[in-house]
User: What shape does this take?
Amino acid sequence: MQVKTISTVGEIKPEHVKGRTVIVIDVLRASSTIVAAFDSGIKSIIPVKKAEEALALRSLNTILAGEWHCKKIKGFDYNNSPTILKTKKHTGKHLVLLTTNGTQAMEKAAQADRLLIGCFLNASACIKEALVQNSDITIYCAGTRNEFSFEDGLAAGMMIHLVKKQASSIVTCDFSDAMEASFLQLANKLPQLLFTTTTGKRLLQNQFEEDIRYCGQTDISQIVPILKGNRILSLSDT
Assistant: This one.
């Protein structure tokens, strides 16, 4: 089994996606928001690229969440904030989600055999599901504003370490090994370390300290989000 880690949206290529299980990581905050949304009772999530698309999908049974460069979008119910979403129960509701980087990353990997959404919160559950498929794996960091995000790389490193512990005959790329080494060296500094990354600093400037702290927790959820058509579902509901 081959495991490859991709550092940004701009780096992803068709050969990284087709015939593979892909795990999209956007720790701060799209992946973490998606996991938190399902934990709050959301039934499905529709990722969109434009505010107009989201607003057109509004209904009594649909809520809108999203941000553009950390700012809540006018007319939306929530920012792209996992801690705000999880403060209320949304049982049976559908969520329309727009984010700066995460939704774009998902769209570019939509042709994967299986597309999962991962982060620190559900890393072990995500890897367990990926290994069940017995196919090559791409761990895909969304990054931020077309640049690599260290927090995504650390989450990828955690997943690489989990793969190596659970499966034999694993072939990894140099970047995967580097991210695993980084995670093993720095894991005991989470979640505080996320405050020092570029995205973490930007969120802190916008008063999202609670989000950063929440997103740095490891394995607190068994939710495995999976893309099915144009919707994201929790694996337990598929």
